Amino acid sequence: MTTIAMLALAGKHVLQPLPFAPNGLKGLSEALITSHHENNYGGAVRNLNKLEEQLAQITKDTPPFVVGGLRQHELMFRNSATLHEAYFANLGGDGRTSGRIVEQLAASYGSFDTWETHFRLTGASLGGGSGWAILALELLTGELRTFWSSHHTQALATAFPLLVKDMYEHAYQMDYGAAATKYIDAFFANLQWDEVNRRLEQAQLLHQQLSMIR
Ligand SMILES: [Fe+2]
Fold first, then answer.
1. 36: CA distance to ligand 1 center in Å?
2. pTM over 0.90
3. Which of 11, 19, 74, 188 would disulfide-bridge 52, Cβ 3.0–4.6 Å?
């Protein structure tokens, strides 16, 4: 096995701490946030590490169906970890909109409120089930786009996530039961728009660089 392959399957992913005090959110309890972070996000990171250890054991004699099962789970745990980190990092704010993202969403959707309606309803459509609602910048086109994902493994190709909303029931059931729209209200009340603007700047820079060499 080469050194590069060993690095790719090192199983050394580290749990990122919550970027805010777990008892500091409005309408999302400390018990909910702590359980979500430790069990759902933490489980994804721990499983990803175990999975990479198993992927590193693949030889030419490993049955392809075994490799396929491992690859399927790799995608699930890798995306879950990444999306959970983005989700927690875009919470912890006061929900007040600010920065360039506001004007750019208004320009893309006709008004900021129209985008917000799209984003809320995209999340609501996943109520009682599982998935993610994500505002992303498409790296090849530079367009802002809201997309729907009913599983960790569904993702818009080339999308750079700007705002991530967890719609798995574990994100709200403890506090709101099946009332997903009440959770969406709480999500918006705790948004950290400075983080969304920081990601927008990163994504647009990447898009510009890609445009210069394509
Ligand atoms: Fe989650």
1. 6
2. yes
3. 11
**168 alpha carbon to ligand 1 midpoint, in Å?**
6
* 71 to 4, 24, 75: CA distances (angstroms): 18, 38, 6
Predicted confidence (pLDDT) per residue in 145-188, tens digit: 999 999 999 999 999 999 999 999 999 999 999 999 999 999 99
Residue 72's CB is within 10 A of a number of other CB atoms, namely 11
* Distance from residue 1's CA to the centre of ligand 1 (Å): 35
Residue-wise pLDDT for 55-104, tens only, equals 999 999 999 999 999 999 999 999 999 999 999 999 999 999 999 999 99
At position 8, the amino acid (one-letter code) is A
Ligand 1 centre to CA of 40 (Å) is 6
Model pLDDT for residues 98-135, shown as the tens digit of each residue:
999 999 999 999 999 999 999 999 999 999 999 999 99
Q: Are 127 and 167 contacting, i.e. CB atoms less than 8 angstroms apart?
A: yes
The percentage of residues in the chain with a pLDDT greater than 90, rounded to a whole number, is: 94
Ligand 1 geometric centre to CA of 169 (Å): 8
